[in-house]
Each structure stands twice: as C-alpha cells, then as structure tokens.
Amino acid sequence: QAQLVESGGGLVQAGGSLRLSCTASVRTSSGYVMGWFRQAPGKEREFVAHISWSGGSTYYADSVKGRFTISRDNGKNTVDLQMNSLKPEDTAVYYCAAGPPRWFRDYRVPEHYDYWGQGTQVTVSS
After folding, report:
1. For the chain, what is the total number of helices (H) and then of strands (E)?
2. I need a surface site. Which of 42, 70, 105, 119 has the fewest CB within 10 A?
3. Is 88 in contact with 125 (CB distance < 8 Å)?
4. Dist CA 56 CA 90 (whole Å)
5. For residues 78 and 85, what is the distance between their CA atoms, to the nearest angstrom?
6. 18-24 β-sheet, strand order
C-alpha cells in the first residue's frame, strides 16, 4: 500500500509562485505515472499535469500550460509541481496521485490512478 503526502500549499497573491511537493512511500521508479489534480469547492476533481516514470514525458492541462512545471526525482521518491504566475482561479486543493503504467491509458482521468495523497490547499488572492 503506497502512501503519498503533499506539502507546499499556502496563500499567495496573484502573479506569485508556489512549489508543491509529493513524497511517495512507494518507489516512484517502479514505473508509476505520477499526476497532480486539483479540486475547487463545488467543482469536480480536475487534471493538472502528469509525468512518466522516467520523467521524459509530461502533459499539462491547457489552463496551466506554460505556467506550471511537473518534475520528479525517483531517487528521493518525490514529484514536484512548480506553479508560476498564479491566478485566483488556481485556488483549489491540490492532490498528488500515482498510477500503474499501462499502454494507451489516459492519465488525465482520475480513475486511472491507484493511490492518492490527502491534498494541500492552495489559495491565490486577487
């Protein structure tokens, strides 16, 4: 049973930056795809970004492309999300997730991940 723990959330003004980190108890070099999702009050969980186990392939939601960067360090079992140029609409609880590698799987879908963190709150003030 893997455990994921997020950290780095907080309150920031619009235009500012935050760096979220996710530490996994399971070896991230075991092949798992790692993803970040977010959920704002009253809304469904939304895909943000995912990264392949090697780190060589990344994918971003259009709403964050060019502002957010996902990265991973398999030696430390961590996955980070660098968030720049933050907007009030980025306010949400951010979740880290791990999904087993499968060919042709759409990792923008939350149901394709087996393990989830407890979430960390990000609030962007205008």
Report:
1. 0, 11
2. 42
3. yes
4. 26
5. 23
6. 4-7, 18-24, 78-83, 68-73
Backbone angles phi, psi at 87, to 5 degrees: -120, 155
Q: Would you say 70 and 51 are in contact if contact means Cβ atoms under 8 Å apart?
A: yes
Q: What is the DSSP string of 36-85?
A: EEEE-TTS--EEEEEE-TTS--EEE-TTTTTTEEEEEETTTTEEEEEE-S
Q: What is the mean pLDDT of the chain?
A: 93
**Cα 32 off chain centre by:** 13
**Amino acid, res. 78:** T
Contacts of 68 (CB under 8 A, 6+ apart): 48, 49, 60, 81, 82, 83, 84
What is the model's pLDDT at position 27? 60
DSSP 26: S
